[in-house]
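Annual report, structural modelling task.

Input specification for the coenzyme a persulfide complex:
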Amino acid sequence: MNYFLTEEQQMIRDLAAKIAVEKAAPVVAELDEKEEFPWEVMKTLASSDLFGVYLPEEYGGFGGGVFELCLVTEELSKVCCGMGVCYAASALGTLPILLFGSDAQKQKYLPDIAAGKKLAAFGLTEANAGSDAAAVATTAVRDNDSYVLNGTKQWITNAGEAEVYTVIAITDKAKGIRGASAFIVEKGTPGFSFGQKEKKMGIRCSATRELVFQDCRIPKENIIGREGMGFIVAMKTLDRARPGVASQGVGLAQGALDHAIRYSRERVQFGQAISSFQAIQHMLADMATQTEAARALTYASARMIDSGDDSISREAAMAKLFATDVCMKVTTDAVQIFGGYGYMREYPVEKMMRDAKILQIYEGTNQIQRNVIGLALIKEMAKKKV
Ligand code: COS
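The model returned the following structure:
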């Protein structure tokens, strides 16, 4: 399908695809097995200026937006969704600064992030604050010119590898949701440490750890926006990051579909390639149609965000929900087409199916996405007063 990419967008996509095929593909299985962070691939993305595609030119970026971010994420995820998330999660951690940071904060942090010299990470989730993002218990107490942070963030992507962390903490418990604030915390700050690397089902090359704050003192200038804005910072960040998760789903689904088509042409049963059977052709047709529909929705939501439209929660949630449900189905069907071989680690679709599952869970479960969409529909109708 023609999405009428500009010449620059085609160039970005092709460059990301080249890196994915030449640098990522040869090490995918090994890094998955060893659960090792893909630093070499990240360095290649950095030297090719792909970390700054969504950042303004004045901070060393390319001047694109969420759409460009999606293009790169999709190409990486076609080959390895774990690498796709290492890249996309850095943008998730950067968005609070980009959307709500002061000019001084942008000057200080964005150029290194755009150059890929520093990765970022986003710290919202806690043991008791997952879907219920407002239940955050980490505190930040003002003490003269500092804030002192205490608490533990859980399952933070890029934790330990990233240098810059945007963290949501409570500054005024009595105010509930309006008592949360967002902060920038740098790796190496005394009182800030990391938990053990988590052992995961999929996306195993990506790093997932706890962020542990024990009397961690940061300068008061590290608050993002004002006290009390933390929940809004988090929600608006997630709205703009969800097409990125959708594009992980689109890329991963496309990668699995490509493997399934190739395999069906090679595999001979009953004296002919299984691609000649209508049962297989119909499966491939559904996988391709669903993947393309997911891509169209993802691109449309990203373009809507980049147009500056502010009410995009529903569309971002739809893209994330649809693309990641499609991805789970397509990767499962790819394993089915491979049959017994698909279940073996020797073949790539086994990992792809494992990787797909997390997409329905992180950055808001697909049940939460349905809540967001449902509430938006009801609110919209109430506004129309019909
Ligand atoms: N943009 C702007 N404002 C938003 C918003 C958004 N997307 N979502 C909510 N808000 C505002 C609401 O308008 C409301 O403000 P008012 O009180 O002034 O009306 C306030 O925030 C509270 O909203 P709400 O009552 O809907 O909050 P809930 O506690 O019910 O939670 C959900 C809302 C479930 C949508 C939220 O907690 C969520 O997104 N959870 C999933 C979190 C997540 O994605 N976690 C993954 C880990 S991060 S990688």
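The CA atoms of residues 261 and 284 lie 7 Å apart.
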